[in-house]
Design goal:
about 325 residues; alpha/beta; Rossmann fold; 2 domains; disordered C terminus; binds adenosine-5'-triphosphate; ATP-binding
Length: about 325
């Protein structure tokens, strides 16, 4: 997979450039007794790489399908590139590339032939340039050598790559990728990250879903955490990580002296292997450092303990694992109580 930068993405004919590439309000999807998505208000800023993070069954795929107009919401509104769905779908969709589960490739055609069929229905692709666009997309996702083989014989990773190639046939204003690294080996995962970084640099907005925090941290500028069908945290990745950082880890050889100085200042602290951990409740990092330095404590290093998203996501995942005996309906209804 190459990561060459494609042409910058224009804002041509899907109306004036919106501030949000996608927006949902009160989005809800109910399948029978299962509430798959509930009250989701999602903001995808233009130019962002937004990671949709959540454990299995948290509603990522359903939300993405509603964003793309593939599934009709039970309630709520979706705006895609400034166009309200479902009416605006025809205007918005040509500017949106998507990799979603089950892209419907023909099993007995080769990867290249499949992609040519997709290219034939691309409104933004001039007839004469379709063949070259297919070859470029195949190269970009590292499928050039396997392009002549039948789709039926592709591994999961190769199928993912072909789906990604279809999303990349023309420069898009918005690219939506549902679990794009699913089935890929570590090298393939790195390549997908490269493609996402490349799309971002070229001006596309990207929405990417994953159940792996590491994946989101490596690629995203923004994140929306989903749990049991609802968004429990959303915003800039850096701000989210920072906002919940409630402790400061201080590396020092003078542990006793540090604890005494902090306790004298009514600052909550406890010893760790490397020094002390200070809870930033009713105090700030500069105030803690000032108290330590004034007491003559040798501070070798001070860093915020990254709670935030990591802790939040761990809690969610643990809750999900503990709920294995419950059906999806029980789990969601319990969450809604
Ligand atoms: N077509 C459907 N019919 C019935 N239930 C569905 C359907 N699609 C999704 N669900 C249910 O909705 C809930 C959310 O599923 P969804 O696939 O959106 O989650 P997800 O976060 O994408 O999960 P995963 O990471 O496993 O793909 C699950 O309980 C799922 O079983």
């Amino acid at each position: 997979m190459t990561t060459s930068t494609s042409a910058r993405v224009g804002s041509a004919d899907a109306g004036p450039a919106p501030v949000l590439a996608a927006r949902t309000r009160g989005l809800r999807k109910v399948y029978g007794r299962t509430v798959a998505v509930d009250r989701v208000d999602l903001d995808v800023p233009v130019g962002a790489v937004l990671g949709m993070l959540g454990p299995n069954g948290s509603g990522k795929t359903t939300t993405i399908r509603m964003l793309l107009g593939l599934v009709r919401p039970t309630e709520g509104e979706v705006e895609l590139l400034g166009q309200a769905l479902p009416d605006g779908v025809a205007a918005a969709l040509p500017h949106v590339g998507a990799l979603v589960e089950g892209p419907g490739f023909h099993p007995f055609l080769s990867g290249r032939e499949n992609l040519r069929r997709v290219a034939a229905f691309e409104p933004l692709l001039a007839t004469g340039s379709a063949r070259q666009a297919v070859e470029d997309a195949l190269e970009r996702v590292g499928l050039g050598a396997a392009a002549h083989r039948r789709y039926r014989g592709y591994s999961l990773g190769m199928k993912q790559r072909l789906g990604l190639a279809a999303a990349l046939l023309v420069p898009r204003r918005l690219i939506v990728l549902d679990e794009p690294t699913n089935g890929l080996d570590p090298a393939g995962t790195r390549e997908v990250r490269g493609v996402i970084a490349d799309l971002h640099a070229a001006g596309s907005t990207v929405v990417v879903s994953s159940h792996l925090l590491s994946e989101i941290e490596a690629t995203c500028t923004h994140v929306a955490v989903l749990h049991r069908g609802t968004v429990v945290a959303q915003g800039g990745l850096a701000e989210l990580l920072q906002a919940d950082s409630s402790s400061l880890l201080v590396t020092t050889p003078d542990v006793e002296q540090a604890l005494n100085a902090l306790r004298a200042g009514r600052i909550s602290a406890r010893p760790t292997e490397e020094g002390v951990r200070v809870e930033l409740i009713g105090t700030t990092a500069p105030a803690v450092l000032e108290a330590l330095v004034r007491a003559g404590v040798a501070v070798h290093e001070a860093r915020r303990h990254r709670t935030g998203l990591e802790d939040l996501f761990a809690r969610l995942t643990e809750a999900e694992e503990g709920d294995h005996n419950l059906s999806a309906v029980d789990t969601i209804e319990e969450g809604a109580r």
